Write the structure tokens for this entry.
Amino acid sequence: MNPTVELKIRDQGTVVLELEPNMAPNTVNNFLSLVQKGFYNGLTFHRIIAGFMIQGGCPDGNGMGGPGYRIKGEFRNNNFKTNTISHRKGVISMARAYDKNSAGSQFFIMHEDGTFLDGEYAAFGHVVSGQDVVDAVATIPTWPNDMPMAPMVMESVKVLDMGDWTFAEPEKM
């Protein structure tokens, strides 16, 4: 059993994610740590691109913020060979800057397949229910900078079940 997380998006619905610690253990620990601290509650999906993905987890609401630290990118092109999750519809992955080890709190959920991201970003789980909610958010009107015209707020993000996973504080850089 893998950990599961529930993400409630105001006026849209609930998404349940199954995390895959066997593929990206530190990334999962990082995400779970932030969820358990309530970090994501009240934050928004600040970048939405229909046919691609929805991105959230920036405390500044503009894609420039993070938790105050970075984690190592757990993906093939960063010498992490065991993560074989493909960026298919419903996959959750860590957002990052150009630096391969710049992920912190921002994540994205795939609206459609984006396999060109495979090996370049740390995918760490997938939607098990609520893909229709992701689809609805992905198709709301946005400004030219991909920011939604109406805020897409994460009312609550909470751990439903830790499964068989033994949580550890994430390794930070």
Notes: The first strand starts at residue 4 and ends at 9. Strands lie at 4-9, 13-19, 45-49, 53-56, 91-94, 107-110, 123-129, 154-161. The chain has a mean pLDDT of 97. Residues 19 and 120 are 18 Å apart (CA to CA).
